[in-house]
């Protein structure tokens, strides 16, 4: 059992115990709780801290932990805040599609919907060592250079290649922050942004939040279709397109060599930017990911986004924006206005991690693990859910994109899957407009074990039969 789940279980038990006691009643001592629940003193301390943060208990040094007084009942009439509806206007910012797959699953529920690795796959020991080394530096809390610490920017530049220098790299608070800045820098509010169809649901959320209109361009097994991209540029007058050339989320498609050149040529003819999301650089299953489109760009059209979050940990919010020309200056200005800079301890820890000998070993092991998990999921689909159609096994990333039987009600399927104890990511969320068919994205990276993957698919198959 992980430390986090031990803390959650103990907190739930203490929460129930406190609810049954009167205000001011003393809870068992740390020593008693350790003996009763078979956990460490640290786990007890963190569980009590969680309850204290909720206002359920109070701690008195030297005396113990007590049930907090109940808050006074609110008798005042609720405040009328309807005026805000008028003041805010008609622009809505909806993060519900993303938060659904960020929340941890309830006990007994298996998630096939998450976009992150299971904690057992994270390089936690390497991270702990890197953080410990960084914490001993006397200047670690000093302000970093506004664009990011230079050695980290240099590392990203060397990784990308193609003549990229540290001056072209801007460190960001993860890939999502970088994506938001890239969209706002290149697309005015109200203007169109061409996006793959289907595409990363976070890109759609960014566009809508920025007041930008996402316009879909179909994707097939080889990535975005250049012929339809050119046609959509001509129809809309758009000046930017968002693409994921390597292991596209959600389909897993890889943009082929011929199409890479065609996409750049189409963007050049349209006078447009290409926002390239290279989120899966380290998630190849066997053959390394192709180099970013940026290395073939000679006109400064490509704005590249990359991040360490996926292969490292959800809280490793370190990404990079790479751009050249006037757009780079605009991006620097946006980053400065948004949050000044990325915290130096986080940047330095990331640098320590990727500079260590263990980094290459972690990535090599991750490739093997992801490939095994992908195969286990595909085998489970073939055995338990043959009605799902998977066009081709992904060569990288963390997801399998499957077409559901025609006529499947995605909303009903999601509810049925939840009742069966499995979370899935429904296809509708990945389309900017009406989807051509029902789909589902199944993650093979977020479950604890291979057996959990198989059990999750079995549960999902039961849900699928129930809504057929």
Structure write-up:
With 468 residues, this protein is α/β, with parallel strands linked by helices. 44% of the residues lie in helices and 13% in strands. It has 17 helices and 15 strands. The protein has helices at 3-19, 30-37, 41-53, 83-88, 96-99, 124-135, 150-160, 174-186, 201-209, 226-236, 257-270, 309-312, 326-339, 344-355, 357-384, 410-420, 450-467; strands at residues 57-60, 64-67, 110-111, 169-172, 192-197, 213-220, 223-224, 240-243, 273-277, 302-307, 319-322, 399-403, 422-423, 425-426, 439-443. An 8-stranded mixed β-sheet has the order 4-11-10-9-8-5-6-7, with helices on both faces. Strands 12-15-14 form a 3-stranded antiparallel β-sheet. A hairpin with a 3-residue loop joins strand 1 and strand 2 (64-67). Helix 1 (3-19) crosses helix 3, helix 10 (226-236) runs parallel beside helix 11 and helix 15 runs parallel beside helix 17 (450-467). It is globular and about 75 Å long. It starts with a helix and ends with a helix. The mean pLDDT is 91.
């Amino acid at each position: 059992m992980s430390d986090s789940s031990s803390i959650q279980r103990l907190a739930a038990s203490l929460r129930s115990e406190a609810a049954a006691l009167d205000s001011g009643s003393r809870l068992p001592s740390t020593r008693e709780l350790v003996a009763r629940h078979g956990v460490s003193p640290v786990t007890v301390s963190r569980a009590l801290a969680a309850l204290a943060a909720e206002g359920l208990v109070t701690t008195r040094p030297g005396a113990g932990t007590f049930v907090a007084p109940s808050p006074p009942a609110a008798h005042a009439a609720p405040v009328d805040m309807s005026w805000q509806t008028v003041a805010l206007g008609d622009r809505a910012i909806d993060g519900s599609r993303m938060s659904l797959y960020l929340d941890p699953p309830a006990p007994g529920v298996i998630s096939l919907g998450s976009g992150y690795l299971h904690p057992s796959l994270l390089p936690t020991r390497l991270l702990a060592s890197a953080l410990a080394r960084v914490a001993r530096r006397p200047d670690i809390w000093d302000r970093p250079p506004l664009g990011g610490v230079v050695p980290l920017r240099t590392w990203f530049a060397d990784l990308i290649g193609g003549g990229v220098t540290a001056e072209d790299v801007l460190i960001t608070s993860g890939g999502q922050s970088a994506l938001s800045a890239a969209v706002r820098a290149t697309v005015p509010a109200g203007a169109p942004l061409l996006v793959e169809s289907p595409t990363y649901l976070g890109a759609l959320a960014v566009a809508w939040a920025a007041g930008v209109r996402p316009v879909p361009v179909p994707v097939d097994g080889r990535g975005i279709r250049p012929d339809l991209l050119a046609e959509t540029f001509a129809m809309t007058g758009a000046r930017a397109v968002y693409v994921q050339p390597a292991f596209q989320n959600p389909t897993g498609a890889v943009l082929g060599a011929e199409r890479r050149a065609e996409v750049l040529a189409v963007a050049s003819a349209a006078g447009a930017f290409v926002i390239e999301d290279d989120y899966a650089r380290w998630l190849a299953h066997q053959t390394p990911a192709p180099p970013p489109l940026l290395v073939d760009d000679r006109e400064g059209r490509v704005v590249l986004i990359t991040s360490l979050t996926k292969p490292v940990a959800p809280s490793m919010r370190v990404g990079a924006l790479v751009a050249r020309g006037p757009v780079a200056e605009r991006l620097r200005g946006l980053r400065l206005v948004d949050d000044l800079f990325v915290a130096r301890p986080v940047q330095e820890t990331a640098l320590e991690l990727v500079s260590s000998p263990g980094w290459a070993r972690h990535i090599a092991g991750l490739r093997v693990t992801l490939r095994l998990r992908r195969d286990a999921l595909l085998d489970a689909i073939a055995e338990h859910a043959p009605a799902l159609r998977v066009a081709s096994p992904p060569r990288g990333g963390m997801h399998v994109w499957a077409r559901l039987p025609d006529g499947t009600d995605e909303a009903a399927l999601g509810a049925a899957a939840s009742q069966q104890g499995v979370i899935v990511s429904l296809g509708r969320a990945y389309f900017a407009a009406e989807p051509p068919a029902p789909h589902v994205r199944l993650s093979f990276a977020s479950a604890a074990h291979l057996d959990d993957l198989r059990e999750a698919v079995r549960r999902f198959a039961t849900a699928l039969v129930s809504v057929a």
